[in-house]
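Allow me, if you will, to draw on your knowledge of protein folds for a short while. The matter concerns a single protein, recorded as an amino acid sequence and a row of backbone structure tokens. Could you please explain, in whatever detail you think fit, how the structure tokens follow from the sequence? I remain grateful for any guidance, and I place the record below:

…
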Amino acid sequence: MSLMTHNKHIILLCTATFDPATLSDPLTSDLPQPDTIRRWAKALGFQQIGITDVDLSEHAPYVRAWLQAGFAGDMGYLHRNLDKRLQPELLEPQTCRVISARMDYLAADTQPLEILEDASKAYISRYALGRDYHKVLRRRLAKLAQQINAQLPHNQFRAFTDSAPVLEKALAEKAGLGWIGKHTLLLNQQAGSWFFLGEIYTNAPLRLDTQPTEDACGKCHACITVCPTNAIIAPHTLDARRCISYLTIEHKGVIEESLRPLMGNRVYGCDDCQLFCPWNRDAPTATESDFKPRHGLEQADLEALFALSESDFLRITEGSALRRISYEQWQRNLAIGLGNGPATASAQRLLAERLPQASAMVAEHIQWALNRLQQRTSTD
């Protein structure tokens, strides 16, 4: 997964008239039971759901301190609407319950460790290899919300897939979907962390079925140890400014030179903290066909991707989470990957040919890569 646990921006509103009388009797017989909602969710491709209340007061001090420390870097959107993030009832008035859902996304046989070890390949975070998860989860959550709404037409249901100010991992933890690990991702004993999260906010007083999950990280520090850039500065504390997912996706400008060699061939996101987590050793692979890799991106060559024109980039990333970055960022990230890769004549030629037409920002990274490869060539 990645910095934001694969959670970004989509909204759907299942409109219905709010009926205060519905809230007054939490035992009303027309409320669908958690097992019923769970059965509907499973039929729609979700592996697990949980229903929780909206009290995030235990998480609020940590979130505020993390932002105050500057760990969010350029992600200004995390500062905006903070009160709505910490108090769901402010984001969607009258909300008293949140249905948190997870869907596994790791496609089988993508060989992530082998790709990381091959410096000529481009490593793309496994969540971004298939169809954009926003589209997939949005459609499924919409159907789930509509099914519930059919039984409760006087209540409202609003579904989110990494959209708007929602504290997704905290809500999922409260809903019993797992615990927040030392790498700050949500962990589940059966599923590890290779899954997406989505939520439905509602004013229907659904019965809570939260089963608190005990933190099972124990003394393990694997995620902290393997982080290429030492971005996990302490258990449960991530300095996003050093995280490769942040650098390759969220950050729009020049990447600090001292961090570039540490990025290796990771050109979109980073999965190291997941790949080496013991809870992911037997993590299930996805059954959702939309998450299967497209265009051979799970094992693409750095040189082949760098040679793509902007129109080719837009073509192969259509309907993909890769569209979160611009072509300029794509070129910047790949230039760093090439600079960390084999000092082949073809790599140097590609970089040199692209240099005159590159923006100033990309040109800085291309020149850095050329210098690295030329130095390596002269010492071989």
